[in-house]
Specification:
It comes from Urochloa decumbens. InterPro entries: Glyco_trans_2-like, Nucleotide-diphossugar_trans. It is a multi-pass membrane protein. Belongs to the glycosyltransferase 2 family. Plant cellulose synthase-like C subfamily. By secondary structure, this protein is an alpha/beta fold. About 55% of the residues lie in helices and about 10% in strands. It is globular, with a radius of gyration of 31 Å. The two termini are about 45 Å apart.
């Protein structure tokens, strides 16, 4: 290090500040005394006793002071970053409130697919509950200030005025309100324990799979040379890309599928465009034409009547006469980009395995670190694929089809009745019907297909509403078929009690009821008790189990726990809509994509001879960018919004937290406080993409 001058170094020409020069090694930001040395440390010093000691000078106070200064500088930097983040968060919240855009606007309600009547009733219930809580908090604060100790034996004596009214309320809640709340609490705790046990068993199953290194292996593999169809197992494969107004991602998905390593004569790509935007239709049609000019076997299909959403699109495509020439069909949503060896790693599992109907690959995500919302989604989906799908695939040969990144045997689709438009979860529908007809499934945890996560809370909320209302629709429709079918009793029990009731109905029900309704109520009706282990320890253990498949996400374990409880509002509302067949249960909203693939990614997927020119099948990025920019100017702008239900629940939980202070319930107070803050952040739309 060069010598310093001025205030911090020695004076020019003088020895006033002479001392041991300090050298600080900067490789590690966690500086410590062991990392500080002087230039003379490598020299030996002869002591008075004649012994030799390495290091001419010992560590002195100045060196320790430098360590402390560097530590203080780092701490100050962290505090400055936190202060800056807090200021930015406060500014965003202020702008959100000033803008006044809420999810109650007509356009947003229509886009989310929620029934206005159900939405208003649910919100009215939350507001009424909040009003009662505020009133009870005022009463409890007045009682605390005036010293009305109603647990005392003096309650039996007649009192006058406000104290008399409070005593009457005390006796009424103890006799009539508390027993009902306690019964509901005990029921939810039982459901909570059953669901926790199911989660624990699944994790143990995943641990067993890893310990024994269980992995599905094909009975016969395709030979490396894919140019000769007769050299290995290369059956006829149909590849479908259903899309709807997804001009941000169509290029990368078409390019990835056209570059699949499979004999060109043995697979055909169908681009199933349901877009109602003429510009998007033109762009996709031109992209298909470019790949056709380069020899790719790809066709473009557009429906005039867009009935049945994605299921109707797939059903229409399967009705083509040339489909009978194909044995398997691979499906990829518009934002999915399979690796070139995808078919080579999935299709061979079908050979000599006539009972196999589906091979499902797992998802990987290009934008998992984009913001806090995508990180929390990543934790959930990692657990879903690593634990739920893998365990069910290994031990039961059944799981819910994920709708994309999978290969179906066409005979299994036809045997199960084909695609049906009766629900918004056509993928789960066909999987359940195929299972009832005896077909088996395989999940490949080591085969990944790249895709995107929703980056805005609005898009994620729409997606979760569809994912949780559809299964309840399907349960109503499939229950008679499950009971009548000839599969074993244990498979019926798994479908009814585990697959549908426990994981699709009970989970959102108890999450919302227990942590958003019962827990605040027990603060105002203390005669009904909710144990600490239900509030803190078991949820923390379950969150820890959920985060194990993605260990790098461990720092987000607390935000994950709080956010899952926050999302229970949306999931509960969706579950009720699907169970009782309300209007919002039948609405399909396409999840908004951002198109995270870079220009380099798109060019790398183009044919080799066209990577240095703008024509042919290489994506014409400049022209597309101009067209998309023009369309964005004509379209509606994106905005962050205020979500009224989440905001009202945050006020409710913070009110209950204030009440818990009076009874000095530590764990309950901290949980309610942080859960209330979590609802507040989500209600102000501060967790996902921030639109400036």
């Amino acid at each position: 290090m060069a010598p310093w001058s001025g205030l911090w170094g020695a004076k020019a020409g003088g020895d006033a500040y002479r001392g041991t020069p300090v050298v600080v090694k900067m490789e590690n930001p966690n500086w410590s005394i062991s990392e500080i040395s002087s230039p003379e440390d490598d020299d030996e010093e002869i002591l008075a006793t004649g012994a030799r000691r390495k290091g001419g000078r010992t560590k002195n106070a100045k060196q320790i002071r430098w360590v402390l200064l560097l530590k203080a500088h780092r701490a100050a930097g962290c505090l400055a970053s936190l202060a800056s983040a807090a200021v930015a968060l406060g500014g965003a919240a202020r702008r959100r409130v000033a803008a006044g855009r809420t999810d109650a606007e007509a356009g947003v309600v229509a886009a989310t697919g929620e029934s206005p009547v159900v939405r208003s009733r649910f919100y009215a219930f939350i507001k009424a509950f909040l009003a009662v809580s505020l009133l009870l908090l005022f009463v409890e604060v007045a009682a605390y200030i005036n010293g009305w100790d109603l647990a005392d034996s003096a309650l039996a004596l007649p009192v006058l005025g406000l104290e008399s009214l409070y005593a009457s309320w005390f006796r009424f809640r103890a006799a009539y309100v508390a027993p009902g709340i306690q019964f509901l609490t005990d029921a939810c705790v039982v459901l909570f324990l059953i669901q926790s046990a199911d989660r624990l068993i699944q994790c143990l199953g995943c641990f067993y799979i890893r310990l024994k290194r269980i992995k599905p292996t094909p009975k016969s593999t395709a030979l490396p040379d894919a140019e000769d169809p007769d050299a290995g197992y290369y059956p006829m494969v149909l590849v479908q890309i259903p899309m709807c107004n997804e001009k941000e991602v169509y290029q990368q998905s078409i390019a990835a599928v056209c570059n699949l390593d499979w004999p060109k004569s043995n697979f055909l790509v169908q681009v199933l465009d349901d877009s109602d935007d003429p510009l998007t239709q033109t762009l996709i049609r031109e992209e298909v034409a470019k790949w056709q000019q380069q020899g790719a076997r790809i066709v473009y299909r557009h429906r005039v009547l867009r009935d049945g959403y994605k299921a109707g699109n797939l059903k229409s495509a399967m009705s083509c006469s040339y489909v009978r020439d194909y044995e398997f069909v691979a499906i990829f949503d518009a934002d999915f980009q399979p690796n070139p060896d995808f078919l080579k790693r999935t299709v061979p599992h079908f050979k000599d395995n006539e009972e196999l109907g589906l091979v499902q690959a797992r998802w990987s995500f290009v934008n998992k670190d984009e913001n806090l919302l995508t990180r929390l989604q990543y934790i959930n989906l990692c657990f879903h694929f690593e634990v739920e799908q893998q365990v069910n695939g290994v031990f039961l040969n059944f799981f819910g089809f994920n709708g994309t990144a999978g290969v179906w045997r066409i005979k299994a689709l036809e045997d199960s009745g084909g695609w049906m438009e009766r629900t918004t979860v056509e993928d789960m529908d066909i999987a359940v019907r195929a299972h009832l007809h005896g077909w088996k499934f395989i999940f490949l945890n080591d085969v990944e297909c790249q895709c995107e996560l929703p980056e805005s809370y609005e898009a994620y909320r729409k997606q979760q509403h569809r994912w949780h209302s559809g299964p309840m629709q399907l349960f109503r429709l499939c229950l008679p078929d499950i009971i009548k079918c000839k599969i074993t009793f244990w498979k019926k029990a798994n479908l009814i009690f585990l697959f549908f009731l426990l994981r699709k109905l009970i989970l959102p029900f108890y999450s919302f009821t227990l942590f958003c309704i019962i827990l605040p109520m027990t603060m105002f009706v203390p005669e009904a008790e909710l144990p600490d282990w239900v509030v803190c320890y078991i949820p923390a253990l379950m969150s820890l189990l959920n985060i194990l498949p993605s260990p790098k996400s461990f720092p987000f374990i607390i935000p994950y726990l709080l956010f899952e409880n926050t999302m229970s509002v949306t999931k509960f509302n969706a579950m009720i809509s699907g169970l009782f067949q309300l209007g919002s249960a039948y609405e399909w909203v396409v999840t908004k994509k951002s198109g995270r693939s870079s220009e380099g990614d798109l060019i790398s997927l183009a044919p080799k001879e066209l990577k240095h020119q703008k024509t042919g099948s290489a994506p014409n990025l400049d022209a597309v960018a101009k067209e998309q920019l023009a369309s964005k100017k004509d379209g509606k702008k994106k905005h962050n919004r205020i979500y009224k239900k989440e905001l009202a629940l945050s006020m409710l939980l913070l009110t209950a937290a204030a009440r818990s202070l009076l009874s000095k319930q530590g764990i309950h107070f901290y949980f309610l406080l942080f859960q209330g803050i979590s609802f507040l952040l989500v209600g102000l739309d501060l967790i996902g993409e921030q639109v400036e």
